[in-house]
Amino acid sequence: MTREEELAANLRDVRERVALACRQAGRDPGEVTLVAVTKTFPASDVRLLSGLGVTDVGENRDQEAAPKAAACGDLPLVWHFVGALQTNKVASVVRYAKFVHSVDRPRLVEAISREAVKQGREVTCLVQVSLDPPGSSGRSGVEPEDLLALADRITTAPGLRLGGIMAVAPLGADPAPAFERLAGYAEKVRTVHSDAGIISAGMSGDLKEAIACGATHVRIGTALLGGRRAIVG
Ligand SMILES: *Cc1c(COP(=O)(O)O)cnc(C)c1O
Question: Is residue 230 left, alpha or beta, with left meaning phi > 0 and alpha meaning psi from -120 to 50?
């Protein structure tokens, strides 16, 4: 089997899983955007996926994403930055990413805004909200009680658009109740910002639970591209 055939088969499987989850949730599959998370895989895979109809690509490290996005600059792709973002990487990320899913602090909002204005781009920001139990280590995302304040800040920042919210299910716990909480947070945000309708949730292992809770963007790596080698650092 060629790599293209392998990716085509994986893509078919993932689209079927998305369609089934939508059917079970009484939702239209057209409401769910598949973001192919291509981290650790080469630009040649991105090119193949694009040829197979994938329109949205996600990456979590600028060092890897910037050259990959440049190598794929001729393709009609929307790039999503989904990983922890340091402010010193913002200028680079804004050059290729239309979406940043991982906005988790005011300083990052200011930095993305400044660069977006400078580069004449509009960046759609999602607030990453923590679904981990309070006090657990290695959490990422804002505390739920800080979500609205950060969302407000994005809506008033020049060059930015508030898209909605993003989360990762807690490690080693049932994703369903966590995604239900996430749906509640999304509703709160939408009450104030009615067009911030994006819910970015669901990965290879929990896309069904995420779609049941209203996910509009699923971020799929392993199920599409295969297993990743561990990356240190
Ligand atoms: C790697 C990654 C994914 C994809 O995870 P898989 O389990 O491989 O599908 C999704 N979201 C984020 C933030 C990631 O870093």
Answer: beta
